[in-house]
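--- STAGE predict ---
source: upstream dedup step, 1 unique chain passed
mode: sequence only
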Amino acid sequence: MRTLHCFFSGGRDSALACYIAHKVAKARVWDFRLVFINTTIAVQDTLDYVRMYADWLDAELIELRPKRSFEELVVRFSWPLLLRSRWCYYRLKLGPIIEYLIKNYKKGDLVVFGIRRSESLRRLSYYNKVFTNKCYDNGPCVHVWYPILHLSDIDVGHLVKKFNIPINPVWYRIGTSGECLCLAGTTEKTLIRIAIHYPSVMEKLVEIDKKVQANKGGYPGPLVGKKITLTEWYEKLKKQSRIDDYLTKYNTCQLGCMIE
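--- STAGE serialize ---
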């Protein structure tokens, strides 16, 4: 029997994509697997949401983990960056994906991702077909389906509401899925949101940063330009006299801008 393997991050896009894929699987009487990669540096709210979403969808949840934790890897390699030293993607996500597909993908299956072209210029130029074949280095060649590839951010928000898809609180608290806080593509605005809404997570990241500084040194993505460590940045943030004003300055996203 054909199986749909839907990779779910806990974000809006994959929540909608997996909802659509699950509907198709039920209509075609195919097997369906909801696949989540626990990167070991996720917000607890997202981990809770992923399990709740699987129950809501009434789908089998497969949870993958990398061979080494984020903390082990970042101390070894320093903070990952988006355009170079992107070890976080290859080791925390791509590795588990390939290992899973080698063991579970069979001819006729579909691998589903919640990717949208409008999210970035790279995706706009790289992704153009809803159904395509993808071959992984040192891995299998698979048939891929991008069910929301041509949707806009507004389209996704409307459909999430229309289908009554459960909302992950992390979406509007920090503006991301919260499943991988490696900080490679994070903005300073998101750092501020993490510090305010998830202080225990920020404290953990700061403790990791201290180990990074003691070993390789380096700055997380949003602080490279300022040449300031995460530890130094957080100490400065805590000294702000009115943190609410500071948050407003960076135009924190409220619930509406994430789901409408």
